[in-house]
């Protein structure tokens, strides 16, 4: 008998950006209350984000989730306990770096448990937005790729340990998202990233065969939950895999990329108590 059979407990996976937190990284009070009530009712709540753990604000982690799926499904933790971790192969990193150079893609980053490794172009982007990337709670986790010491005879791919990449091009790229998706397919699964307002070609580089969907299945299996007892809540293309994998899928009212088409439930906008209303509809809180 599984844990969920014994307790009627659901295992809920919640995206951060656009789902749990708004564009200013603020979690609505209604969402905080709903999460606390759901946990009090015996349900388990996991963050399921494209971010690496070092990129998740302390005020979000301090809300007390039961676990964290990070770097788009490549890692899962319950507190300090590591459930699983997948790393991008050195060959894949080096192939992407060569591709970025060939197509003049200057803004990109690699993310993992050690932090964020960013290009000079991405650093300029952060500074143009007024992001104090090199100060505050995340400062020690940001690394400039130009400053990474690669041993003689080695490559960047063999030097850094990361679980996903992301990038965006300039406003008039010489390759489309579909071109990039095709060209990097031997090494990565590409999904649309969160830079649509910045660039027509942007994406997340995920390890082939590893995504938020595989994480839903693997965490459920490790914790003794049937897939039928899993719920996923998201707002964009990078949530597609988990929404399709979970027993119940919920699209936020502010969802993009057409994900509403395959979700069982569509809740209200994040600015209109979207997460709290989803929990109410699902009987969690």
Description:
The chain has 285 residues and is an alpha/beta fold. The protein contains ten helices and 14 strands. It has helices at 3-7, 29-40, 58-61, 90-102, 120-128, 156-159, 177-183, 212-223, 240-245, 274-282; strands at residues 11-14, 44-48, 67-70, 75-78, 81-85, 107-112, 115-118, 142-144, 164-168, 188-192, 202-207, 230-234, 248-251, 265-266. It has an eight-stranded mixed sheet with strand order 5-4-3-2-1-12-13-14. A six-stranded mixed sheet has the order 8-7-6-9-11-10. The longest helix has 13 residues, at 90-102. The mean pLDDT is 93.
List the helices and strands and how they pair.
Elements: H1 3-7, E1 11-14, H2 29-40, E2 44-48, H3 58-61, E3 67-70, E4 75-78, E5 81-85, H4 90-102, E6 107-112, E7 115-118, H5 120-128, E8 142-144, H6 156-159, E9 164-168, H7 177-183, E10 188-192, E11 202-207, H8 212-223, E12 230-234, H9 240-245, E13 248-251, E14 265-266, H10 274-282
Parallel strand pairs: 1-2, 1-12, 2-3, 7-8, 12-13, 13-14
Antiparallel strand pairs: 3-4, 4-5, 6-7, 6-9, 9-11, 10-11
Helix pairs in contact: 2-10
């Amino acid at each position: 008998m599984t844990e969920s059979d014994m307790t009627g407990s659901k295992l809920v996976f919640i995206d951060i950006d656009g789902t749990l937190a708004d564009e200013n990284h603020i979690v609505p009070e209604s969402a905080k209350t709903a999460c606390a009530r759901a946990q009090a009712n015996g349900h388990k709540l996991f963050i399921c984000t494209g971010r690496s753990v070092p990129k998740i604000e302390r005020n979000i982690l301090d809300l007390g989730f039961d676990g964290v799926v990070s770097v788009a499904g490549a890692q899962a933790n319950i507190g300090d306990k590591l459930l699983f971790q997948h790393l991008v192969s050195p060959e894949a990193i080096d192939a992407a770096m060569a591709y970025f150079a060939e197509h003049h893609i200057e803004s990109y980053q690699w993310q993992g448990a050690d932090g964020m490794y960013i290009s000079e172009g991405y650093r300029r982007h952060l500074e143009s937005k007024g992001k104090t990337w090199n100060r505050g709670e995340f400062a020690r986790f940001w690394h400039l790729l130009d400053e990474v010491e690669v041993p003689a005879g080695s490559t960047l791919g063999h030097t850094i340990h990361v679980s996903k990449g992301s990038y965006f091009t300039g406003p008039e790229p010489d390759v489309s998202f579909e071109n990039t998706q095709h060209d990097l397919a031997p090494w990565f699964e590409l999904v649309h990233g969160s830079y649509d307002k910045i660039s027509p070609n942007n994406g997340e580089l995920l390890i082939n065969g590893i995504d938020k969907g595989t994480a839903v299945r693997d965490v459920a299996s490790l914790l003794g939950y049937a897939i039928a007892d899993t719920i996923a809540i998201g707002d964009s293309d990078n949530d597609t895999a988990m929404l399709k994998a979970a027993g119940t899928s919920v699209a936020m009212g502010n969802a993009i990329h057409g994900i509403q088409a395959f979700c069982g439930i569509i809740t209200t906008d994040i600015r209109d108590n979207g997460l709290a209303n989803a929990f109410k509809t699902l009987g969690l809180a």
